[in-house]
Structures are given as structure tokens and as C-alpha cells.
Design a protein that fits this description.
The protein is α+β, with helices and mostly antiparallel strands. The chain is about 40% helix and about 15% strand. The N terminus is likely disordered.
Length: about 300
């Protein structure tokens, strides 16, 4: 994660737990984050009163405050709030474009206050407990639905993330914290894949096991889109180093089969999907290296895929 600025799209998120919100917000937004945290209780109270919501329990949260709420009509909702620096604008745009197809519905938003009111997926369990092939099939199916959405104005193109590789290679001339050859390979692939994409779509940007929840309106609904545009193969990368608590060696072993399954369901070229998976895994560790130790999980997967990637 970067020490200041918006949430980095390639970063591996922390496992939510007590104190996680404070740590991630202050690390990411510094003094602006502390100011926001100090006013958070008043913000939530004001929003629930303004929107006629009945507040419920705190839900898992890392970069944003997330509360279960009951809507005026009695239906379940989620109130989400974050530092109002514009980083949630792309999520709002993506959810509007999805319009409930494959993802939770956006019911209300106020970008200036960094606040969203969302449909709550019930029962809300994620994909972590499913057999791997079944979980991968659900993610692939959700991506197929989400990629049909119109591309709205606002979301950045994934080409902009090339800058992270450039900065990493400038800052770290050797093989610590990441093998330089691996980063150079991923950087070159990123440029090539963006320049040669056969089509571009609205990307979720972070679809993995914890961001697909069991629901009633549809069997599974996506949450927390980062909102990017570009090659659909990019969205096949985040699943490869998830779930968060899985053994890195096991994730590395599963990666080739996951890539093959995703490419088949999404009708993507398997070599390009493999290349995207490798590059996204390296990007995740590049983001981590910006202001802390690398996670190592995505690196293990990248190393497993590297020999299979065609230049």
C-alpha cells in the first residue's frame, strides 16, 4: 500500500479484524485519515438518521467503515463510508453500470461524503468454504455477467498501473524485496497486454473469494468493485492469490488449473489469461513493497506461472 493517496488496486488487503480499520486508514491516508476516523461516529449517526436507517452490527472492514443497516422498508442494507478523497468514485460508477446484474445494487451514494448505501447480500457467506473448482466457477460466472456492463465515464484504464512497475524498478535496483527479473518481465507483459487487447470491458478489479457473497436475488453477488477499464483477462488475476488464509504453496499449485477454467468460461485466450495472472500477482507484491514487507503469497503464485508465460 502507498503511504498516502487512494487504495492501491493491486495490493493484497489485510485480513479484517479488531483495529484493522484504524491501521489501514492511518497508514494509507495519514493525517487526513485520522481526521476522518475522529469524525466517523458522527458521520455514521448523521447518515443513518438522514436516510431513515436502523443501524446494525459492524461488518468486516479494512479500508472503509462498513455497517449492516435496515432500510425504511425493512429490507437489509449496508452503509459503507470512506475517506472522501475521490477514491470511491470508481466504485460508485461501476455499481451504477452493473445496475444489480451480478453485483449488489447501489441504492444511494454521496461521493462528496464518501458514502454508499448498498443492497446487503443475504445470507452473505463468501466462497472460501467451497471446493476450489466450484468457487472458481462462481467467480468466472460473475465475471462473465459483470463484463457485459457498459463502460461508464470515470474509471481509470489499467494501463495507468504501469507506473507502479516503473517506480519499483527505479527505487529497488537489485533483487530485494522482489527479484528484479520477475518485475521487469511483468512490466513488459503489462505494456504488451494493454497494447494488444482484443476488447475492453468495465473491470471489477478485485474479484476473489471474499468479494462474492451468497444472496437470494441471485445465488451469488459481487461486492466492492474497484472499477477499472481494460482487458478482461486482468480480472482473472486476483483470484490466483486468494483466499487470504490459504497456503501459498497450495495456491501456486492450483493456479494453472484456475487459469484454464477461467479462460474457458470467459472465452479468453489461455496464454493471455496466464500472462495477466502472472503480471497481476507481481503487481500485488510491487504495491506491498511500496511501504512495507512483501506478502509473499502472490510472489509464490507468480513464480509458479513464470515458466509457463510466453513472451
Amino acid at each position: 500500500m502507498s503511504g498516502s493517496g487512494p487504495v492501491d488496486p493491486g495490493a493484497r488487503p489485510p485480513v479484517p479484524g479488531p483495529g484493522t480499520l484504524y491501521r489501514t486508514v492511518t497508514r494509507t491516508w495519514g493525517d487526513a485519515g485520522r481526521v476522518w476516523l475522529n469524525g466517523l461516529d458522527d458521520l455514521i449517526a448523521g447518515l443513518t438518521g438522514e436516510l431513515g436507517l436502523v443501524p446494525g452490527p459492524v461488518l468486516p472492514q479494512s479500508f472503509h467503515a462498513v455497517r449492516a443497516v435496515t432500510l425504511p422498508d425493512g429490507s437489509p442494507g449496508v452503509l459503507k463510508a470512506g475517506v472522501p478523497d475521490g477514491h470511491l468514485d470508481a466504485e460508485i460508477a461501476a455499481l451504477r453500470a452493473y445496475d444489480g446484474h451480478g453485483a449488489v445494487r447501489l441504492l444511494w451514494s454521496d461521493a462528496a461524503r464518501g458514502a454508499l448505501l448498498l443492497e446487503r447480500a443475504v445470507p452473505g457467506s463468501d466462497l472460501s468454504a467451497l471446493p476450489d473448482a466450484e468457487a472458481t466457477a462462481v467467480i468466472a460466472d460473475r465475471l462473465r455477467e459483470l463484463h457485459r456492463a457498459p463502460i461508464p465515464d470515470g474509471p481509470e484504464h489499467i494501463r495507468s498501473e504501469q507506473a507502479a512497475f516503473t517506480e519499483h524498478l527505479r527505487r529497488f535496483p537489485g533483487d530485494d524485496p522482489l527479484p528484479r527479473e520477475l518485475v521487469e518481465h511483468a512490466a513488459a507483459l503489462w505494456r504488451e497486454l494493454c497494447d494488444s487487447t482484443p476488447r475492453e470491458v468495465l473491470l471489477h478489479g478485485d474479484l476473489h473469494h471474499a468479494n462474492v457473497l451468497a444472496a437470494t436475488r441471485e445465488p451469488w453477488l459481487a461486492i466492492d468493485p474497484h472499477g477499472r477499464t481494460g482487458d478482461p483477462g486482468y480480472d482473472c488475476g486476483q483470484i490466483l492469490y486468494n483466499p487470504l488464509d490459504a497456503d501459498p504453496a497450495e495456491l501456486a499449485r492450483r493456479a494453472p488449473a484456475r487459469v484454464e477454467q477461467l479462460a474457458d468460461v470467459l472465452d479468453l485466450d489461455q496464454d493471455r489469461t496466464l500472462a495477466w495472472g502472472f503480471a497481476v500477482c507481481v503487481l500485488s507484491e510491487v504495491w506491498c513493497a511500496q511501504d512495507g514487507p512483501i506478502d509473499g503469497t502472490a510472489l509464490a503464485v507468480a513464480r509458479a506461472l513464470a515458466s509457463r508465460v510466453r513472451d
